[in-house]
Sequence to fold (186 residues):
Amino acid sequence: MKEASMKIEKVIVVEGKNDVLAVKRAVDADVVITSGSGLNPGIFKMLKTLHDERGLIVLTDPDGPGERIRSLIQEQIPTVDHAFIQKSDALVNDDIGVENASIETIRNALKHYLVYSEDQIDIAMSDLIDLNLQGHAHAKAYRQQLCATLKITYCNSKTLLQRLKMLKIDAQQLKTIMEELHEANR
Fold:
């Protein structure tokens, strides 16, 4: 008996054709390809139209080029949604990509995608500094732990602040999460 497929109404944006195949194995969805980081005005126009009509979820590789593509799309379409796969779940023989992720990993990422919100969330860069997520000797390690806990790809503090706002995590919630992480590491 064939496994029931998870249906995604929004259009999923990936980098390449192998990513499309991996996503299509995991979910029933329409998928578009950016064809790498060479995004041109025509692709942005198409993505904006699709976003306005159906909504978009960006699911790029958890590496530098993938984050660059995600960032470029975010600049052009600020209200786009984001799904993330951890690097460790997308790595096969030094090759990092959505195409390497398991069906379960892709489904999980798409179940927990970040939705753009215009709500004002009470969190600022100073909160990240206070919690040693920025400007501290171990800030990178702390951000890595936090990102893994939140199921988002590792990022710098500026991007982390944006993603915390997307997740609607305020300063107090972040403090609690970080205390739990520090407690678990003792």
Q: What stands out?
A: DSSP finds eight helices and eight strands in the chain. The chain has a mean pLDDT of 90.
